[in-house]
Specification:
By secondary structure, the protein is mainly beta. It has a domain of 90 residues. Helices cover 4% and strands 45% of the residues. It is built from four helices and 41 strands. The chain has an eight-stranded antiparallel beta sheet with strand order 35-34-41-40-39-38-37-36. Strands 27, 28, 29, 30 and 31 form a five-stranded antiparallel beta sheet that branches. A four-stranded antiparallel beta sheet has the order 4-5-6-7, with no helix packed on it. The protein is elongated, with a radius of gyration of 27 Å.
């Protein structure tokens, strides 16, 4: 499964697709209702909902399944009476399954324990611990909470965690976030940290504090190790020449290939690339300090190309740092035809997906017919295949439409449209209209109209469904509105 958010004409939306490219559920925001997906945990797609109208201004939260059916009903809690930015990128969301039907959910600065069975929410304050940015990892029934600002990782039982009980503190230190899933961490044991602080030598320890891998050969250099996933971990090491290099090690500490030079600057650091690694694959900033390009490096150090090289080993997991969720990878195609793997570096991009199990690039998504017929949003047998970067169906504007102010606008087969469309009252002379026969690459149509005294307005048409559309004024508007929300009558 993969959740993709997007913006069309100033309106946000999201869709859920499976690993064949089939859109199982899609949603477009309305003027009164904004829905923001905040994450996925144990079959639940968590969503927040903002209702804003004359009588209400509130945030609610709940969950849906992959078809959009309600799992946990939307509800308002006092803790949720805060604003979330409408752009998902401006928020900080995280979630982690803890065990026994409990999940950890973070929404910006608020943290909660959520029971996925009965819908109970518990506010987590982490009293006596000044946590601002944390990472949660569950290993062998214990919960490890890393304070990412201080580098200290604390151990807790599930019961103590969901009850916000931090009276007993066991901890260790690691400079960067480290995946603990395989029971090893790169950092400093509690005993060494208490004596030497951050100046102590970093090693790989097990969760009992025993040294597992040491690096005496790097004693006089900077080096950093990532977490082990699939028996391998990525490392970043300073060379004698002062540049940064990356490689992969196994659980014996053996390098799998000679270190590769990576891009390092005041704004781009290679350490996050080491965090974004799994099964010996990593997403690294390469090209030798001349031109930054994020590339996938395989367990042998070779550059791999998603969609061409075999990445089946990553198909059963979720690795956010690699843009992989349940076996589907998100990539971005630039206007020059090249594929990129970091969205913020792909200016002028389109979204594509890769099914890692079949190694196929998904450049089209299949939309259930019901999403164009106004019969609901759930999965049906018939479907339409359209571009993955955006989609729309065949569409006819002909007919009667009601605007948000209850005016009736009639687009006739003869190519005429009544005067109300141009901002005049009933009874005025009709104007003419014509619409593009195909949608553009963003899924929008172009509507051109003309009136003897009302100008020649041009609107961009966005389909919510075949019976619900939005018009955004582009040019030539004299008396009519810049925006229309229309429903078919």
């Amino acid at each position: 499964m993969n959740v993709s958010t997007y913006t069309n004409g100033g309106k946000d939306g999201f869709r859920i697709i499976d690993n064949t490219g089939k859109v199982l559920y899609s949603h477009y925001d309305s003027e009164e209702r904004t829905v923001i997906p905040i994450g996925y945990v144990k079959g639940h797609f968590l969503i927040t909902e903002h209702i804003a109208n004359f009588d209400s201004d509130e945030w609610r939260i709940g969950s849906i399944d992959k078809f959009g059916n309600s799992l946990l009903p939307m509800e308002t809690l006092p803790e949720f009476m805060f604003k979330i930015a409408r752009k998902r990128s401006e928020n900080e969301f995280s979630q982690q399954y803890l065990g026994d039907d409990w999940a950890y959910v973070a929404i910006n600065s608020r943290r909660f324990a959520l029971n996925l069975k009965d819908g109970e929410w518990r506010n987590l304050n982490f009293e006596n611990l000044p946590f601002k940015h944390i990472t949660i990892t569950v290993v062998d029934g214990y919960i490890y909470v890393r304070d990412n600002d201080r580098g200290l990782t604390y151990k807790s039982t599930l019961t103590d965690f969901i009850n916000d009980n931090w009276t007993s503190l066991d901890y260790f230190y690691s400079r960067y976030q480290t995946d603990l899933a395989e029971g090893l961490y790169f950092g400093i044991s509690a005993s060494d940290f208490d004596v030497l602080g951050e100046s102590a030598e970093r090693k790989y320890y097990d969760l009992s504090g025993n040294v597992v891998i040491d690096f005496p050969e790097y004693e006089d250099r900077y080096y950093y190790g990532g977490g082990f996933i699939g028996g391998y971990a990525a490392m970043c090491v300073s060379g004698v020449d002062g540049n940064k290099y990356v490689t992969v090690i196994d659980k014996n500490g053996a390098k799998q290939y000679e270190p590769i030079k990576v891009f390092d600057s005041n704004t781009i650091y290679p350490e996050p690339a080491v965090v974004a690694s799994a099964h010996g694959y990593m997403l690294a900033p390469t090209n030798n300090n001349t031109f930054l390009r994020w590339e996938y490096l395989g367990p042998d150090g070779r550059t791999v190309i998603p969609g061409e090289d075999d990445l089946t080993i990553l198909s059963t997991g979720t690795y956010p740092g690699l843009n992989i969720y349940d076996g589907v990878m998100t990539i971005y195609k630039r206007d020059d035809g090249t594929y990129w793997f970091m969205k913020d570096l792909a200016y002028g991009f389109k979204v594509y997906y890769i099914n890692l199990a079949t190694n196929e690039i998904i450049d089209k998504v299949r939309i259930p017919s019901s999403q164009f017929s106004g019969q609901g949003e759930n999965q049906v047998n018939e479907s339409t295949e359209v571009a993955a970067s955006e989609y729309t169906g065949s569409f006819s504007l002909t007919g009667m439409w009601k605007s948000s102010n209850d005016s009736i606008i009639s687009f006739n087969n003869s190519g005429t449209v009544n005067a109300l469309f141009f901002g005049f009252g009933d009874g005025g002379p009709d104007g003419s209209w014509a619409m593009s026969s195909k949608a553009d690459e963003n899924g929008h149509y172009t509507l051109s109209a003309s009136h003897i005294t009302g100008g020649s307005p041009v609107y961009r048409v966005r389909l919510i469904s075949k019976n619900e559309i939005e018009l955004y004024g582009e040019s030539g508007i004299e008396f009519g509105p810049d925006y229309y929300y229309l429903t078919r009558q």
